[in-house]
Each structure stands twice: as C-alpha cells, then as structure tokens.
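Sample intake sheet
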Amino acid sequence: MKIKDIYGSLPQLETERLILRKISLEDIDDIHTYASNPEVAKYVFWGEHETRAATEEYVKMILGLYEEGKIAPWGIHHKEDNKLIGTVDYVSWQPQHKTAEIGYALSMDYWGKGIATEAAKELIRFGMNEMDLVRIQAKSLVENRGSERVMEKAGLEFEGILRKFIYIKGAHYDVKMYAIIKEDA
C-alpha cells in the first residue's frame, strides 16, 4: 500500500459522536477558535495561531496536501454541535515498515470528554485494518498528562522517554513514546 492509496481520496470515518473528514475552507473559523488558544498550543508541537490569516494559510496548506495525495489530517467534526473541534492524523507513515505515528489536537472546550480518545481509537482501527499497519505510535511532551491519558485509553503502551527529542518554541523537550502493535489491538 502506498501513501497516495489512502490520501489520494481521504476516506471519511465515523464514530458514535464524531465524523473524521477532510478539512475545508468553511472550517477556518472553527479551527481558529481552538488553534489560537494558548492552552491548546501549550503542549503541541506547533505554535498558537495568532491571526485568522495564519489559520487560513494552515487550511490552504492542508488542502494542498489533499490535492497532492500526501499525508494530511482528518478534521474532527462533532456531530451534536456540528462543529470542527480538532484534528487527528498520521503525522508520519512508513508503508515499507508498516508503521505510523498518530497525532491530535482538540478544542479545550472538549477536553476530558473522551473525544480525542474516540478519534485516536478510530484512526488506530483504520490503520490496522485498512492500512495494514503492524505498529502505531504516538508521542507527547512529558508534561502533557492529558495526551498521555488519551494514548493510554486508546490502548497504546508506554515505551519510554526520548530525552531532548524535539526542539520547539525555543527549547529542547523530552517526549514520552507510546505504541500499540497489531497483536495487541
């Protein structure tokens, strides 16, 4: 399987409360609402969106990735509120090794409700069943207890701390590595 096989026409996925779908220009305001929140950006590997124009550029970049059949995020659409409240994606995928890494970001208004876990579980299910993955991993900054709980509830197991693994926002950070393998899914 090749990356373009999935991302050439990103499939819509559905869970009890969510629709995981392509992001569109109509989502700019919803994305800006959470991506401009310093608390949301505190533990992710990107900086907060300081302007609506920054969010618009981000969305246009994603649309370009969709067009090129490259790895790009699914938007997390909350059915009940009819809003895009975050993203979930494979931040990397190595088809030759049958491994991938997931990432997610979620509006603070939806923290602590199992939404990120529900989205992550669906992406893991899709990855194991449709992408023939044998390993899916995720990383979070050591200080990010919320993300750690999401990874644990999604069935990933703690594998260790990668010291000074990432340089973002002017500093090096340790990250926790979690993973699930096909036999355990």
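Comment: Residues 142 and 175 are 5 Å apart (CA to CA). The chain has six helices and eight strands.
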